[in-house]
Amino acid sequence: MSDSTQGAAQANRNISIIALLTAIGTGIAASAVQILIFTLIKNRLVRIYQPKTYLVPERQRTTPPPRSPFGWLVSIFTYKDKEIINKCGLDAYFFLRYLQTQLIIFVPLACLLLPILLPLNYIGGRGTAKTDPVDGNNADPEAPGGLDRLAWGNISPKQTHRYWAHLVLAIVVVTWVCYVFFAELRVYIRVRQDYLTSAEHRLRASATTVLVTAIPDKWLTIEALSGLYDVFPGGIRNIWINRNYDALLEKVRRREGIVAMLEAAETSLIRKCNKAQLKQAEKEEKAMQHKTGHHDTKEERARRAKNAEETAAQIARGEGVTSGDINQVVHSVEDAIEEGNRRKNRVVDKQTAMGGLAAMGKQFGRGLGLVGKAGETLVEGTKNVGGTIVGGAKTGKGLEGQIESTNGFVWIDRDPLCPDMRQERSRSRNNSNSSQTHFADAEPVETQISIPSRDVSFGQTPDTPRGFGEHRGVKGPELDNIPYRFGGGDGSNDSDEMKNSWWKFWKGPSGGFASPMPHGFERDEYTQKRNFGQMVTSGGQQIIAPVKTLFTNNEGPQHEYPPHIDPDYVEDEESALWAKYIKKKDRSTHRLPRFGIGILPYIFPWVNTKVDSIYWCREELARLNVEIEYDQDHSDDYPKMNSAFIQFNHQIAAHMAVQAVSHHIPKHMAPRMVEVSPTDVIWGNMSIKWWEAWLRTFFILAAVAGMCILWAIPVSATALLGNIPELIRQYHWLSFLRGAETALKSVAGILPAVVLSLLMILPPLVFYNLATLQGNQTGKMRELSVQNYYFFFLFVQVFLVVSIASGTFATLAGIADVTSIPGLLAQNLPKASNYFFSYMIIQALSTSAGSLLQVGTLIMWILMPKLFDNTARQKWKRNTTLSTVHWGTYFPTYTNFACIAIIYSTVAPLIMVFAIITFTVLWLANRYCMLYVFRHTEDTGGLLYPRAINQNFIGLYVMELCLIGLFFLVRDDKNNAACFPQAIIMIVVMALTALFQFLLNQSFSPLYEHLAITLEDEAVLRDEAFERAQAARLMESDHDDSDSDRDDGAARNPRVPDTSVSHDDDIELELRKLRTSQSTKSGGNGGTFNPLNPLRTGATWATRGARTLGAATFGDLDTAHARRRRKKDVEAQQLMGEALFGGYNDEIEDLTPDERDALVRVAFQHEALRAKRPNVWVPRDGLGVSDEEVRRTERVGMGNVWITNRGTALDGKGRVMYGRNPPDFEEVSLIML
């Protein structure tokens, strides 16, 4: 190939050992710095480096690692596979297993291949005949040099018989890799089936719920679906028919934005007033001091600041003011049951009862009376270290350090809702004549389509076979019209045209069923609805609806809504409290777009109307609340989608329903999916037709292919960065770089890899949007689609383009002839191996060190809160939102590494050394992150693992294809083809590899997702064993509860004397006391999380070393003060986790079947129906501005805006602090259904 078509990797051919070591040294130095920083700060910034030890629900928490600098390397190996699965999920477990699998592949191969191939390639090779004494490279530019002398191309033409060793070892590589893949898929199926049939998982709704899509109209009724699917064992429990709530969802999204805007505007107003008051007070104080001649001392200023902080904590601990709360938010399972009963009663009143369904499950557990403290309730009695307690907030040095280390969170006492207020709140839930403004006269209709549960399913026991013509309480097809033999119809379904048009062969013979009819089907009614005119109208709407929405706003059903604001209310600004401190121009304002185009206020601000943000948001939020709640109560007015969720009573019934053919017409009622989590549904894609999904897939695949081609242009340009010395010689305008060739040669080893990594940042975002646009209906399907797209993209860009050519179109021209592909790969791949030596090692070191240091999260935590987090909700969201893993783009990166290593395993065997290093460091870093950093909210159940293994076969095929071309290209010293037999054998091996993969997938693929019937009996035995163990545990818990009641006073107020703690032994003693107290309160569980537990790990090796170094260099420092401050920071962060998540029982096995069903009935509703009235959460202040804003909002919105200032306040410096979850946070959302 010409120089213009050589790839970036080829630019590094004949790379010297110096260049490689420079690249590796640079990577090691950069990663060492990151690891050092991680070691120094990991025990202090536990929010970033150990958030899963406290800032997640208790079920997902892990034990903090040791405080020693490298103790985490030991702790990550103490977790067994089962613990990793329970804490992190199957996806995380199989990802770690995938990295471990690559080590299983390459370690034995390296031990076998390296001692054989390296001597064969090097001794007596072309590149060892004559070398340059300076850098060791061959004087002949065509001969291999540098590390290329250890690769395929160095074998002399006189020694072509050595290639037989390459053939044999290549067959060994293929055989070993195929065997490992076979063994891993067997393990995958066993682990996944064991997990799915566990008693804990079988309790989840996702285990028994099936998503059915592309349902025809006449089957889109509860009667039809229940009559169709109740043939499976156990019967049906719930059915949800989805409706198109896009218009309602758009209102909900707009309401969320307005709530955020109103919170920001109100918070800004309150802070401005308080800052103005503080400024005025300081001015008056200075004037008084100037007049009296007395100036405050440092102690007096500290005492005044402390009093201000105490006042702020007292305000935050107070009851606050609230308005517009209609008690929609469900804080406990009891609330969910009450809400479910009210919904069920409304359904019974509205529609005819159709019969119940069989009760699900056995009576496990005792109910979630433990779920429960509300988000506003906190564990009282906080331990104090080095200071006094004011409302649970530290005041030793004030709230300053705590607010900085926790982004505004402060520990405050229990929820000010006293028992009387709680009883009043409970009564208000049951009292239909609430004082708040809501639709008391019009009972809301049922917003989900479900079937009331009862002991038997549709009047039939689970063991009773379904008789012909017997339906469970609904009308079925008339028996007189059903033919009993083939062609035995009475002709009523045959038209004259069908009888006479014998030549219409595509319609088939007349007679028999025109089409199967669902239960409860009314032929006359259906025929009337499907007349020609309505069919045309409906079909036209289906086609032009997406185009129509581009030009018009889809407002959904048109209703006449009740009034949302008081039309007689006039804002009295003169008497407003805020007017005493600031002017009207200081209030927040924004501009409204005139023509509904949101970008106009930014392009032409002068043509749009400027409004006061608070006044406008109040009215708009009240309007949206009224409209959304009214639309939710009239949900039947929205059109149906062509999909439904069906929950069965038995897990095996759900898997049978998914695998059975549901409809007699192709692509109808398909695809069907099981293991669908309620939070994983993409509601916008639930009404896509099968043909529309095909059409979208075609365009998306074309877009992905186009992106791979176009993205190759900048990627291939990295070749220029890898051959800078050559560019200097060719282009005169780069002459200023002459004389620095040695330095540039070192840079050439690292710069292309760095630039290539930067180019890979944007594609994942594009692929996720494409996968959503494709029509994937669950997040699990979207992740699987992204995994395919991103792997294909990486393999083309990082491997093919970088290896073969720098010009995309030159590459396409070079492979225009399919038969030229092996030759093209054979010519270029051996030259490109050196590039991937440095690429893999740099990627491994930088990725692993970056994963440990969490650079992005660290920057976001340090900078973003100070710049953007102004409201209590923004601070709470940043504190509680942990880093997550997008598996669709996480897996392919490492799969691509594995493919590259497999491809070069025989061509350049030295790459296996770098592969082993790569996967080892990545395995260690990712194991730490999975256990201590990443929170895994959604899980595909490990489905990405078999797909990643199948993608590894591409590496085998490319390796075999390359070897075939190389064998054909080998020439002996007489220029004759010397390896023709080896090439033929390699072709056979490639065919056998393809056959093996085909048989492997044909055998294993049915078990990738579905359970076998043989597992059901074993699963039932597990359920019984789990029931016995659960009953024993609950009996023990009840006994411990009775013991704790006798010592309730001591358990509620574990106070620490107001003395400074200076010894670790004293801290440990207090920790034991607190652990005992907390354990007693939570039911005697010895493993209960202790919020102060990380205090033991506060004094780290890093800080002790820094303290010793500082004392030796600058003298004795105030080490006691530093230790107290460090421990206070850690303690404040840990208390945040206990306040926000502690005390909530998120174990689903503690729920009774009725309680689980109460949660599930709501969970599978459309998210627009589940949306509750949001709360406007504003901080309380000592001036009373916040209280007045709440009252004014109540008057103008007639109670249609829920606004409160409970649980948040301003500190002495006017900063927002909070001490509990937002009032509209639902604790039951922590339970994974």
Automatic annotation (TrEMBL):
The keyword Transmembrane helix applies. Residues 208-288, 573-685 form the CSC1/OSCA1-like cytosolic domain. This is DUF221-domain-containing protein. It comes from the Eukaryota. GO terms for cellular component: plasma membrane. The chain crosses the membrane at residues 15-41, 103-123, 163-182, 693-713, 747-768, 789-816, 836-863, 910-933, 953-970, 982-1000. It comes from Pseudogymnoascus destructans (strain ATCC MYA-4855 / 20631-21). Keywords: Membrane, Transmembrane, Transmembrane helix, Transport.
